[in-house]
């Protein structure tokens, strides 16, 4: 009786495992839908630059500019490298920068993106990006570094 019961349980377990097995794959000719969407009016331009200013013992360098056109707006990503050559900690963040465009208006960072900001220890380097949204037709900008009330550095950049 025990053997019969053991056989019945084994057969039942075998059917259960087969029923819960992997479903067969769909034929390879079925197209899978892409989960990412591309906006039709997206264009991306990359511009390598090395623009450096030294302010209060900190070397501020704009290394790369990425331009993306989305819905008739130019989205800029400015990649910075900041090196503290002083003997004290220096706090620097993307909010210390602004853009003055050729239309005469001033633009602040895009707060919907993750912008850089941190305290830089002596003889250390911080890298990060600051994001801005400006009009699509903008051809030149001034990137202004103003951590407090006084402007401390500015870069004139022609956007390609």
From TrEMBL:
Residues 45-149 form the DUF4352 domain. Keywords: Signal. Residues 1-19 form the signal peptide. InterPro entries: DUF4352, Immunoprotect_excell_Ig-like. This is DUF4352 domain-containing protein.
